[in-house]
UniProtKB/TrEMBL annotation:
UniProt cross-references to Gene3D superfamilies, sorted A to Z: Aldolase class I
Keyword Hydrolase attached: no
Molecular-function GO term, any one: nitronate monooxygenase activity
Keywords assigned by UniProt, alphabetized: Dioxygenase, Flavoprotein, FMN, Oxidoreductase
Native organism taxonomy: Bacteria, Bacteria division TA06
This protein's name: Oxidoreductase, 2-nitropropane dioxygenase family
SUPFAM superfamilies tied to this protein: Inosine monophosphate dehydrogenase (IMPDH) (SSF51412)
């Protein structure tokens, strides 16, 4: 395919041949296999750090060490499989966030994506020189211009630098959502509006620091036509997660992928996650039980999320998501984006990206013809 009409995504000195980032999906949905496949096609592949050690044999006894070991292993495996761009997604809410971030920097990943909480790093743990001297690019994930402003001001004051890029994640995304439940379907919180607001908000910071900070749109983006729309709107690229689940290379089980293929629009529901956030998932027996007030007993030897009161919650979300990844859907459930019901088959990452780029080019051609 001729990529001349496809814009590249530039983040500092990093250049992705196509403006597509594969969103990080935990627990264990996007690891080295999926990330490297996306990177090999010219996009940015992302390993999700959340609960990454839960498949290690000693996780229950030593979860932090298991997480660190598993993250190093997955980063190195991805680098062995590709010369393309590899990132790591790290949730701020993780109790071992700092350790996972430092490992990502030590392993020299191309980018780290920081979200699920405001990335207000602790200068005593992540010293300014560590950020300034790192070749790794820092991408913050936000759900509003207000959040972007707070983060940029904090980084300016404490580090005298600003993030290298911003992902704006709208309310149509999958998994945990940075919105109040009542705002998920409010037109004032549409992704198009949020992207424009964030672009405007960071202009002064870009000018002050003399650097371009690309804004990436995320949440509900499904087709190449969507990609074209957001790039025309001013975004430098997009982040997509749901589309990459239904690929052969996705690190989830076939049973997990099948939940996407089989689900209908009405099966996609908003849940109250034990970590205190709304989440978007595919309804199944496990979720119906929780909706009915049935508790799923568990023991928590690690407290992986700082926002989780494990003594009061009805189930362990890390365990539920790990079970789902393994295909044990009776003991867990699948997170998904709002458009997951459109998925109808599994394909290769290569075929998926070819489809997206073809749709992008078609959208661009229609736009040119309509303007003539």
């Amino acid at each position: 395919m001729d990529l001349k009409s496809i814009p590249q995504l530039k983040i500092g000195n990093l250049i992705a041949k196509i403006p597509i980032i594969q969103g990080g999906m935990g627990v264990g949905i996007s690891l080295s296999r999926l990330a490297s496949a996306v990177a090999n096609e010219g996009g940015i592949g992302v390993i999700a750090a959340a609960g990454i050690g839960m498949l290690e044999p000693d996780f229950v006894m030593n979860f932090k060490e298991a997480n660190r070991r598993a993250l190093r292993k997955e980063i190195r495996k991805a680098k062995e499989k590709t010369d393309g761009l590899i990132g790591v997604n790290i949730m701020m809410a993780l109790t071992d966030f700092n350790e996972l971030l430092l490992i990502s920097l030590e392993e020299k990943v191309d980018l780290v994506f920081l979200g699920a909480g405001l990335p207000l790093l602790n200068p005593n743990i992540i010293p300014p020189e560590k950020l300034k001297n790192s070749e790794t690019k820092f991408v913050v994930i936000v759900s509003s211009a207000k959040a972007a402003k707070i983060i940029f001001r904090y980084w300016e004051r404490n580090y005298n630098i600003i993030p290298d890029a911003v992902v704006v994640e709208g309310p149509m995304a999958g998994g945990h959502l940075g919105f109040k439940k009542e705002n998920l379907f409010n037109p004032n919180f549409k992704l198009e509006k949020l992207v424009e607001e964030v672009i405007d908000e960071i202009k002064d910071f870009e000018q002050k620091f003399g650097k371009e900070v690309p804004v990436i749109a995320a949440g509900g983006i499904y087709t190449g036509y969507d990609i074209y729309k957001f790039i025309k709107l001013g975004a430098s690229g997009v982040q997509m997660a749901t589309r990459f689940v239904a690929t052969y290379e996705c690190d989830a089980s076939d049973e997990f992928k099948k939940t996407y293929i089989d689900c209908k629009k009405e099966d996609i529901v908003i849940i109250d996650s034990p970590v205190g956030l709304p989440g978007r998932a595919i309804r199944n027996k496990f979720i119906e039980d929780v909706f009915s007030g049935i508790k799923k007993p568990f023991k928590c030897p690690w407290k992986c999320l700082s926002t989780c009161d494990f003594n009061k919650v009805p189930y362990c979300i890390a365990l539920a998501l790990t079970n789902a990844k393994k295909g044990m859907l009776k003991d867990g459930f699948a997170f998904c984006g709002a458009n997951a019901y459109l998925v109808d088959k599994i394909m290769s990452v290569k075929k998926l990206i070819e489809t997206l780029l073809k749709e992008f080019q078609e959208a661009a051609s229609v736009s040119v013809e309509s303007s003539c």
